[in-house]
Specification:
single chain; mainly beta; 5 strands; 12% helix
């Protein structure tokens, strides 16, 4: 019996991190968005700040990175912007 391709639950997302583009492949749509955001930060060398210091923006909307990827209904290779929150000085 052939296996179902696992790609059904995966999507590629493009992130722009402070002006640097990176693609996160094989994002599991059942995981919270912050998992892919952390991969994008790692891939661009932006590891010095906690994930909570970053704004996650798609189509001019701030996203809740704790929601599952599937809740956003992103198209394949959706472009998501990550930028440091203004005046972020710690909690």
């Amino acid at each position: 019996m052939p296996e179902k391709p696992k790609q059904q639950n995966q999507i590629s997302l493009t992130f722009i991190v402070n002006g640097t583009e990176t693609v996160v492949e094989k994002v599991n749509v059942h995981q919270p968005l912050h998992v892919a955001v952390q991969k994008a930060l790692d891939q661009t060398g932006n590891t010095g700040r906690p994930i909570g210091d970053w704004q996650v923006i798609y189509n001019d909307q701030n996203l809740d990175a704790n929601k599952k990827v599937e809740e956003f209904n992103f198209p394949e290779n959706a472009v998501i912007f990550l930028s440091l929150k203004a005046g972020q000085g710690g909690i």
